[in-house]
């Protein structure tokens, strides 16, 4: 069984000053996996590696942050889909800029979750929520502080102890008053949400 035009390829990664894409994975419905080949200038046909592909259809992805392109290879006539997303860049405190990495978010949060009843799946979802939150701002670059702030909300929903641990490091708690203030905020938030859910 060979790949046919049902192949679909999710997301792209080309490092280029103007158009930054991330290649995530490739999927062919009949073969399960098709690794596409990329060059800095463009994309090779994933079936015959022809360097020229023709875009036959372009649509905005369901999430609103990606573009799906249906492409056809002029050489072998096979069709495939690419999903292009802009690379979200994070400005570090040092001033260096690096691509946003969901795994880094999860690694940072996982430390705060030690010994807590939190599943790997919960962490994955948290990483996704953080990325969606940051992308929804429509900025190409976000400071690393913003990434930390975007973690606080979803982590609070997940586990209050992990939240306090994470907040104490991220917000540089220095004394008991800092903890008391954070706990008070947490309680206020809870009673507010409690009231809302009873309305
Ligand atoms: Zn081809």
Architecture overview:
This protein is α+β, with helices and mostly antiparallel strands and 199 residues long. Among the domains are: 54-85; 89-190, no CATH class. It has helices at 102-112, 120-136, 144-158, 160-170, 176-198, and strands spanning 8-11, 23-27, 54-60, 66-72, 79-85, 89-91, 97-99, 141-143. Strands 3-4-5 form a three-stranded antiparallel sheet, with no helix packed on it. Strands 7-6-8 form a three-stranded mixed sheet. It binds zinc ion. Zinc ion binds next to loops.
Quick recap of the structure?
This protein is α+β, with helices and mostly antiparallel strands. It has helices at residues 102-112, 120-136, 144-158, 160-170, 176-198; strands at 8-11, 23-27, 54-60, 66-72, 79-85, 89-91, 97-99, 141-143.
Structural descriptors:
alpha+beta; 3-stranded antiparallel β-sheet; elongated; disordered N terminus; NrdR-like_N; ATP binding; ATP-binding
């Amino acid at each position: 069984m060979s790949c046919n035009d049902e192949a679909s390829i999710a997301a792209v990664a080309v490092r280029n000053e103007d158009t930054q894409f991330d290649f995530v994975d490739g999927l062919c419905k009949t073969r399960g996996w098709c690794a596409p080949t990329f060059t800095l200038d463009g994309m090779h046909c994933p079936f015959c590696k022809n360097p020229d592909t023709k875009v036959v259809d372009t649509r905005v992805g369901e999430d609103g942050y990606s573009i799906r392109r249906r492409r056809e290879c002029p050489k072998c006539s096979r069709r495939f889909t690419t999903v292009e997303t802009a690379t979200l860049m994070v400005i570090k405190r040092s001033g260096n800029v690096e691509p946003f990495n969901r795994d880094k978010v999860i690694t940072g949060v996982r430390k705060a979750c030690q010994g807590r009843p939190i599943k790997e799946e919960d962490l994955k979802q948290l990483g996704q929520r953080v990325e969606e939150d940051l992308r929804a701002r429509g900025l190409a670059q976000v400071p690393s502080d913003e990434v930390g702030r975007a973690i606080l909300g979803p982590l609070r929903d997940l586990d209050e102890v992990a939240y306090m641990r994470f907040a104490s490091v991220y917000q540089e708690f220095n004394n008991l008053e800092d903890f008391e203030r954070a706990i008070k905020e947490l309680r206020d938030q809870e009673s507010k949400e409690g009231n809302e859910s009873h309305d």
